[in-house]
């Protein structure tokens, strides 16, 4: 081996050993190392650095200081407490003996977010914005959080919130380049991921517009049925961001974001529950998505072009949301070709009894809502309607639903229902009217026996108060009236009843019917009992009157029908009693004189005297 070869090999070995040496961490004095790094943190951001554990220095592949037991402070307040901190340094500054921090890696850090006043974070944020806008000195090119914990207060409720398991990586390679960020974390037991790209920090700090793209996804769903209804969804934003200054006393300084936004979730109630918002009507239980243009400023979002999908219903229009003193305010005007509101119809109680489940508006009135809907056609349970205009208003502890108009079975329906919170339950009020409704078609839609035909008009005004549906029915009061023109009663022959009052079975024979020119009934309701003040059927040379009571809480009838004497002297009187879905018909004379005469139960298709 020649001398030149020996020298070359020796040089290579020395180089390898030198590289190995500088690639290994060197234990150094922690106080001096911390003071060295703190000089740059204090100069740039006004932050102090306290270290309780040992420190090491590694030169390759990039110079870095590593600490354990770290606290980043502002004055006497700890903003960040971390089990480990890695400070990445610029080589040129290190050779010149001055610190130039280019990256930070925090291991298992506990970070206290601003509490609303932002006093501890205000100066560090202001210094950072000034340096970024001016483009002075080296910038922080990389920030990494490993298994970090963030704590802060919800601005709506003031409750302390915690984000755990945060793994974040932010890269900003050059001052003129964009900032990219990706993060994974868990909040309220639901894992989520966040990505941000294209953001230009220099333009943002200088008050200029910058492009930005943000995507957030969350999902607690996993294998098995237990997670089938867990919170799941996604939100995406593509647009421009600017940090505006306050223009007047009413306009706050802060970010202004505009662009295109999308939101989707297969189960809105679960997602709202995750966010701490009441889920509201069951109509929102299916897949829900929003897509449209928007502009956002601190505490408010407006969307002049909005597309909403709720289950199979698609709506278009405009909407807005704002947060005032922690209270959410929503407003929207939406139109649909077809709208399915079947989820608003409550499920009946087993056995048909009135529910005694306590009622409250707390979940529905946690925010304000002004919603206006229109649809070419709409379905509410089994009822189909056309040309629908409706609204829902939630404000100051009250819920008010209005039906401006709707065409149902060729007629027009209007109405208003209002609920207000009471110390022990609800105050409920209902007003409505209907005109020229085809009763036969309506009963068919509802699945009821078509025992009466004709065009009806009706009005109702009712009110009540109580802590459950059973209480509301038991305390119901008000008035109601209905009139039917040019119809007939199926399954009942008043003429046969007038000829033979004791032969109710013959009168109720299959195929019996009574034609009439006009039928009218009006009731006065008090404490859940409807008093029939006027009941009249006129037609075919006969006039029949109806009086008595309907016991709403017990779902029971106690009424009397009387056929007035006609030109031929035919007459008759009958009692209608028992459950309103299965009442009995009994001639009054037979009941008074002969207790052995059996009652005749009205068949389902012959409930002719039901109000």
From TrEMBL:
Stretches assigned to the AsmA domain: 354-531
Kindly indicate whether the keyword Zinc belongs to this entry: no
Q: Does the keyword Signal apply?
A: yes
Q: Which controlled-vocabulary keywords does the entry list?
A: Signal
> Which InterPro entries has this protein been placed in?
AsmA, AsmA-related
Pfam families (UniProt xref): AsmA
One GO cellular component term noted in the UniProt record for this chain: plasma membrane
Name any Gene Ontology BP term: regulation of protein targeting to membrane
Instruction: State the signal peptide span.
Output: 1-20
What protein does this entry describe?
Answer: AsmA family protein
- Source species of the chain: Methylobacterium terricola
